[in-house]
């Protein structure tokens, strides 16, 4: 019976967001309360449980998500992202423009929130398209595939970061495994798939061509790369040290402290504030204005994360996990495939990858202790499922369509299929890693 209630509540969540056009945070709160009542949670405890879920979810994530958004905003506004692009374009050359743009999307996409990265990098695609007389979709899909992969697989992006917290995974190991999945997913969904899109003749609007900063106003190449990727170096480095060395005593405590995601983001943002902010002539007031704008950009995501935390807490406290475990044992399906499938179904129904991933994680979190599966791989499996087949109910679908000035048919043929390839390759990669780890 509990499984039917969960299914009903998910359907209601989907309808509230898609049909009733309700704000996702409000939809999560309403459904969380309804789910608690239907699962038999006492009336006087429902709101307390919802509040605990919100606080518990945000408590460990606010620092990482907000500071990550600030870092991404600083990288974009100071011209560090433009510098990274210029360097990669000169390294790869005209014949491998696709690979240059794909690598740019991956490197710049790590610190940038997805929507910010899209708005920042799409005008670059158009500029390169006009300059080299190459069709925009053909060179653009590889870059957008890279952006999508970083959004779905790699911390400190909001969705994978939140999934790490919900599923009790390790941020550093998830990042390392995510890199292993990211490379083949980007290549197959990017340059390989783009070969089938040569005939799509997009007519990008000139309105979206960005004004590039003069070269003498950009940070240096090393400075730009190091400032943007410092969180990756710290998280990945600490995870590798603990994995292969595992120091004890004070050394172990120091490595653990430095590798804590919150400390990583504080150190990275502090360094970037000086290296590509103050050192480049931006006053402290100007840098803080960038950070204020970043908080405005990220606030809707924080509310969605909070709402998902409320729903997860209801699942935990109601005891529904016991029935879920029994149901999983009776189903002849691998837990990682199930995680991917749940997220994929919600993604297709709702459109939001973040909502899909967090809702799926809320369902799976209570049973993670009873299933024999690596939580880091479950994070990636759910993240991959949350990217499946973006279509007309996804804002990213419409951003791509309007920026590239495409028909619905060509948008589905390029964008939707690219997202699906990323999702499926991600699942295959997760299953291969499961055999190895």
UniProtKB/TrEMBL annotation:
Spans through the membrane: 26-43, 55-76, 96-124, 136-154, 174-194, 225-248, 254-277, 298-317, 337-365, 412-436
- Please, which domain of life does this record's source organism belong to? Bacteria
- Cite the entry's keywords alphabetically: Cell membrane, Membrane, Transmembrane, Transmembrane helix, Transport
Bilayer topology: Multi-pass membrane protein
Range of residues in the leader sequence: none
Where found?
Cell membrane
> Which InterPro entries does UniProt cross-reference here?
Glcn_transporter (IPR003474)
Q: What is its main location?
A: membrane
The text of the family note is: Belongs to the GntP permease family.
Q: Which NCBIfam families match?
A: gntP (TIGR00791)
Descriptive protein name: Gluconate:H+ symporter
- Source organism of this protein record: Marinoscillum luteum
């Amino acid at each position: 019976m509990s499984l039917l209630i969960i299914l009903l509540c998910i359907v209601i969540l989907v309808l509230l967001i898609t049909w009733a056009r309700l704000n996702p945070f409000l939809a999560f709160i309403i459904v969380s309360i309804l789910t608690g009542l239907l699962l038999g949670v006492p009336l006087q405890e429902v709101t307390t449980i919802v509040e605990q879920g919100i606080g518990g979810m945000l408590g460990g994530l606010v620092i990482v998500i907000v500071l990550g958004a600030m870092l991404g905003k600083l990288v974009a506004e100071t011209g560090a992202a433009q510098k990274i692009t210029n360097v990669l374009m000169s390294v790869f050359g005209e014949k491998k423009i696709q690979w240059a743009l794909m690598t740019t999307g991956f490197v710049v996409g790590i610190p940038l929130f997805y929507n910010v990265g899209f708005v920042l990098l799409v005008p670059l695609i158009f500029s390169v398209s006009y300059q080299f007389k190459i069709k925009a979709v053909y060179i653009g899909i590889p870059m957008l595939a890279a952006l999508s992969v970083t959004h779905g697989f790699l911390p400190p992006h909001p969705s994978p970061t939140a999934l790490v917290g919900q599923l009790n995974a390790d941020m550093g190991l998830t990042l390392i495994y995510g890199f292993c999945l990211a490379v083949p997913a980007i290549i197959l969904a990017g340059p390989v798939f783009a070969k089938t899109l040569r005939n799509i003749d997009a007519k990008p609007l000139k309105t979206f061509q960005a004004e590039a900063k003069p070269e003498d106003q950009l940070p240096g190449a090393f400075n730009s790369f190091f400032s943007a990727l410092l969180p990756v170096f710290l998280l990945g480095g600490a995870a590798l040290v603990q994995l292969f060395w595992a120091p004890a005593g004070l050394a172990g405590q120091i490595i653990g402290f430095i590798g804590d995601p919150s400390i990583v983001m504080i150190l990275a943002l502090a360094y970037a504030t000086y290296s590509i902010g103050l050192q480049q002539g931006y006053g402290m007031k100007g840098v803080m204005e960038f950070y204020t704008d970043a908080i405005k950009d990220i606030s809707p995501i924080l509310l969605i994360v909070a709402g998902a935390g409320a729903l997860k807490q209801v699942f935990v406290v109601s005891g529904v996990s016991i029935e879920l475990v029994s149901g999983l044992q009776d189903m002849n399906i691998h837990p990682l495939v199930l995680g991917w499938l749940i997220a994929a179904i919600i993604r297709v129904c709702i459109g939001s990858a973040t909502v899909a991933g967090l809702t799926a994680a809320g369902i799976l979190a209570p049973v993670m202790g009873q299933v024999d599966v690596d939580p880091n791989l479950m994070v990636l499996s759910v993240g991959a499922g949350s990217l499946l087949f973006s279509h007309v109910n996804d804002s990213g679908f419409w951003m791509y369509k309007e920026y590239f000035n495409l028909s619905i048919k060509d948008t589905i043929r390029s964008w939707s299929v690219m997202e699906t390839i990323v999702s499926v390759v991600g699942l295959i990669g997760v299953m291969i890693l499961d055999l190895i780890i």
